[in-house]
What we know:
The radius of gyration is 16 Å and the shape is globular.
Amino acid sequence: xxxxxxxxxxxxxxxxxxxxxxxxLEIGVGTxxxxxxxxxxxxxxxxxPSSGMLQLAEKxxxxxxxxxxxxxxxxxxxxxxxxxxxxxxxxxxxxCTLVMCTIPASEKAVVQFSQWLKPHGKxxxxxxxxxxxxxxxxxxxxxxxxxxxxxxGCNLTRKSDQLAELAGFKILEKSYFKYGISxxxxxxxxxxxxxxxx
Length: 198
Ligand SMILES: C[S@@+](CC[C@H](N)C(=O)[O-])C[C@H]1O[C@@H](n2cnc3c(N)ncnc32)[C@H](O)[C@@H]1O
């Protein structure tokens, strides 16, 4: 992961996150690796269901420029108590980096993200996805049950870019890259205030 982080992810995280403004929700902050990339004009709610990860994220928050503007909550995206913190159409951006592969019910998650975003709000994705080629995709399908057990619930078979597009998000920027497996880097925009019914 360190090689991938240095060669591909760090610069992409920076490019995707440094210009964000307003209210931001980050899904599954992990150890807080994105915090250094936020500028000091954002207000971030970072959620993370693992208490161990959250403790590490708290340390990174202290060192980041956005520091006191990052509120951390020990919940997953599907936790109903999150609705007390986030009103409908209240967010300027939602950030998902290496998290759509792991969260439960990712189809429902993107619909919920659309509901939380303001019209024209942004959905940021930096994610590994299932290969677009049929033979590697079939292999990924085959090994996914074992992979998921070994890799903390991570799935190799998610098509998170397609999910966002099916949920009605407009593509502002999108590119793909490979590091052993396929990745997408994308900024989407919520176009209208009507919700998708995926
Ligand atoms: C591979 S880590 C990615 C961490 C970080 N976003 C990054 O870019 O490195 C996936 C994270 O998703 C979190 N996660 C798992 N289930 C989740 C859920 N239901 N809602 C939000 N985050 C979840 C995990 O605890 C883990 O910290």
